[in-house]
Amino acid sequence: MRRSRPRNGGFDSETPRPNEKGNIPTDLLRTFVAICELGSFTKAAHLFGLTQPAVSAHMRRLETIIGSDLIEKNTSGVKLTVCGNEVLRQARRILAINDQLVASGGQQPNLPVVRLGIPNLFAQTKLKQIVTECREKIGKSRLQIRCENSGSLLSSVRNGYLDLAFVLGDDNQLKNARTTWSESLVWARAPDFAWQPNEPVPLISSPNLLAPDRTAMDVLERAGRRYDIVFTAFDMMARRAAAAAGLGYLVLMRTMIPPPLVEEAAGVLPDLPAMKMGIIAREDLDTKELAPLLAAFESVLAAPL
What we know:
alpha/beta; Arc Repressor Mutant, subunit A; D-Maltodextrin-Binding Protein, domain 2; nine-stranded mixed beta sheet; elongated; disordered N terminus
């Protein structure tokens, strides 16, 4: 079968043109950064008004020009190779410089974006204040906030998808944190919750086992206490509703117990250790330029509820 001539002057969409051998088009870099930030080829296609095959073609052209795979094959989601992580860091810088040059010519570029991450656990109690305080500190930049579990947020910061993230974790996960602090964990339940101590401890948990969930299970196992997970939901509001309905115990920070839930009396269940948390910054983040934002972010998160 005779192959039709490509409309771009003899080169198909996956083959670098002659003038690309030593230069990377910014549209390819924007596509790559969007894929990394959104975690999806499909979402990046929607962002730019492209088809998914077109986005895939952009990635193949970029990898051909660079001469290396940027995204690991045969993995679910978007996982970068070692080279991919480095290209992502440099791509952000290149695009920032490009936009500054365009701005100097009088055109209106996309405003720079500051990306923050907070755990789902704190969305209801901290999000509004974070938005209020941090918006005043970012000048003309745009603010983007992602709510996920701490593990995903930590990975996003390490891979350059987020600039700053507030996470819960252990000493190893928080070893390079800008600041850390701890809060007490407690067993929260409905006021009329009925449970016999000789029965397994009924637990309410997230399906992906958040840090408080894992801590509670570890404590019960060390104490030789049996437990059952009686309700799971990613949504924190659903987990609180389950606890209020009397299904079981929900492990929360003492400062985060919402009415009508109450803290279980001392001695009924093993004591829970304090939960460590902190703020992690992207490795190459310009902390001097963002000093006011960093101060506001830390102040809001470390303040008691």
